[in-house]
Amino acid sequence: MTLLASLLFSLASMFSWGRDLNSVDLLFAGDAMQHQAQIDASRRSDGKFDYSDCFSGLSTYIKGADYAVVNLETPLGGAPYTGYPCFSAPDAYMDALHEAGFDMMLTANNHTLDRRDRGLVRTLDCLSGRGIDHIGTYRNRQERDSVLPMVKDVGGFRVAFLNYTYGTNGITLRTDAVVDYIDRDLIASDIRNARRKGAEIVVACMHWGDEYHLTPNQSQRSLADFLVGKGVDMVIGGHPHVIQPMEMRTDSLGRKSLVVYSLGNFISNMRTRDTRGGAMVRVRLSRDMLGRAVIDTADYRLVFTVPPTKNVPNFRLIPVEAAENNSQNDIPDEWRAHCRAFTRSAEAVFSKYNRDVPRDSSSLIPRLVPLPAICPSDHKMTVVR
Asked: Whose CA is closest to 213, among 238, 244, 236?
């Protein structure tokens, strides 16, 4: 390769999502709820369910990540489809999340047994049948042992994912099925096994905390310290249905770890100011001068759920910027006001408590340009912010 070609290739690399080619982006979203009103709004006259409107406003952003994870906080238990307090969502809901760009769905949460063991197993059957990665629940102990540690190759980075819940609303297992409950001995063992399997980065997704509290409780803080102390690189939390702070920690050797206490709701029909929206966090992995995988940066983007309107008969997610700058004319003024109220509240929490995790202010609509012909993979497209 000539010197000129090398320089051009380096410049092209710099403008690929603002990063070099030896980095990847992970994306995490909060609780994907499915209340009765969401089910009803998605039901069509032929009895099928259509969620095509729900995620179109954010699918480009989700697909822009190299690997995206969401908490599936409902079993796919089959008909009759029901919302709170015992959820069972149509399979089309899972399909819509997957089509929006999510690669992994978490199943260890307090609603995973809403349709008991049979609903748990059916959910796993649906996810596996669509080729969607999933962790947190298993058909039996043997399956868990065969699945974990789950170490994914994400663009050349070996990333292990773990998922645990504080409980299952008092519903207990009656078969050999397994739910990964929060147990420090179990978690420590899983972390060790992940490292033995070659994981460079370990992510622990935790279903924990107090509902509707905008700050973490002492149990969350203690468990986060434990996880980081055991070598977890990212702690990603859910369950409170509201956002909670994010912390980028740096140890004495300069290695970073990220703690996100709660991403809040991804999509739902909850109706209070702080439950109408949530956050997505994007984490960039890179390599240091010794070639070791490290967390480079993390940032967040706020999202908001708009309920059905005259123009759009389904629930849909929007970036809060759509209400802030009036870029979408089909959002009623009432819901612009609710979105702005949610944003002000979330930003007040993050500005006070976040540590080195800023808001992502980049464009949601990347433009596609071809890589220079000198690139070995010149048939691919580069996404430029």
From this structure: 244
